Amino acid sequence: MSTETQPAEKTKGLGFANKDGHYRRQVSQFRNAISSKPGAEFPPDKDRYHLYVSLACPWAHRVLITRKLKGLEDLITLNVVDWYMDEDGWKFNPEVPGCTPDTVNNAERIREIYFKVNPEYDGRFTVPLLFDKKQGKIVSNESAEIIRFLFTEMDSLIPEKYHVDYYPEKLRPEIDAVNEWIYNDINNGVYKSGFATTQEAYDQNVYQLFKSLDRVEKILGEHKYLVGDTLTEADIRLFTTIVRFDPVYVMHFKCNLGMIRHDYPNIHRWLRDLYWDIPAFKDTTNFEHIKKHYMISHLKQNPYQIVAAGPKENILPKDK
Ligand SMILES: N[C@@H](CCC(=O)N[C@@H](CS)C(=O)NCC(=O)O)C(=O)O
User: Fold this and answer.
1) Which of 7, 122, 155, 189 could form a disulfide with 209 if both were Cys (CB 3.0 to 4.6 A apart)?
2) Ligand 1: does its nearest atom lie under 6 Å from the Cβ of 59?
3) Where does glutathione bind (predicted)?
């Protein structure tokens, strides 16, 4: 993936597309891992790791789901930023329901934590951010990697019922294969459609997005989950996009060739099974933060910052 964003847009502001009209997500810069290997720089530890998230952000949401699924809530402390992101990025605003102050670094903004760790940092100030309280270092700001090491590397500290690996060895090739097109076409596809600034860039992404949703629909017509009949990382990664689809992406990102609830019965069944049956999915989903973040922060998409009333229900009950 290209990192060539325009300099002025690299660390500041909410204009995300490049000059050619295409949105390209930057490559994350902190890529360490918690590891149970002897001598690891970030070993598993009970009171050491801290997570910064936005409840609006689908990438942070993956980590929140994993933290709860793995029974790590007491071991990895958490701070939540305001859903409103302005041109200086995420900020802490404990007055807002569901938000907290920064209880570890006492920062007002996420950007301060990046600069504290690396004064030369020149990337975007993204969440999720996993922080090592003992060394004052950032472990990782890449959700795809954070969830991987949380699946296994903290197991020595948690009860056996949580020793479930959502990226099991024998399913890896299949999980990797679906992750790839789902990331490009769906997880990132909604952003590439919504942040496009030319008709060509939008067209290129929106049709591909729905083609890949059709592909998922077919898989979920044949299996309970994306990879066979067990819950895996692939489901966690897709869920955070699909749960935002009808309430936000259909209208706000112009992903309106269909809605999950009306046009994708198998995806709709899968979404509601996860949400209503597994607390890690429902309890980490905050529709107020999700809707307000996108519709009030993205001034280019929604200059009057009016939050849309619908859909009537953010997610339907299982029997509707
Ligand atoms: N590759 C990162 C992407 C994270 C990301 O793009 N987060 C967004 C929120 S949804 C963010 O913090 N954006 C702030 C910015 O770009 O200034 C991951 O998956 O962890």
Assistant:
1) 189
2) yes
3) 90, 124-127, 142-143
Question: Is residue 294 among the annotated active site residues?
Answer: no
Phi, psi angle pair for 38, to nearest 5°: -55, 140
Give 15's pLDDT tier (boundaries 50, 70, 90): low
Quick check: 1 pLDDT over 90? no
Per the annotation, where are the binding residues?
A: 90, 124-127, 142-143
Q: Where are the domains of the chain?
A: 7-162, 170-297
The whole-number pLDDT of residue 10 equals 41
Q: Residue 9's pLDDT is what?
A: 43
Assigned fold of 170-297: Glutathione S-transferase Yfyf (Class Pi); Chain A, domain 2 (1.20.1050)
Q: Measured between alpha carbons, how far is 292 from 284 in angstroms, rounded to an integer?
A: 16
Same fold, 7-162 and 170-297: no
Q: How many angstroms is it from 260 CA to the middle of ligand 1?
A: 24
pLDDT in tens, 104-120: 999 999 999 999 999 99
57 is annotated as an active-site residue:
yes
The domain over range 7-162 is classified in CATH as 3.40.30.10 = yes
Cα–Cα distance measured from residue 296 to residue 103, given in angstroms and rounded to the nearest whole number: 26
Strand partners, 17: 23
Identify which of 162, 141, 142 has the alpha carbon closest to the alpha carbon of residue 280.
162
188 lines ligand 1 (CB under 6 A): no
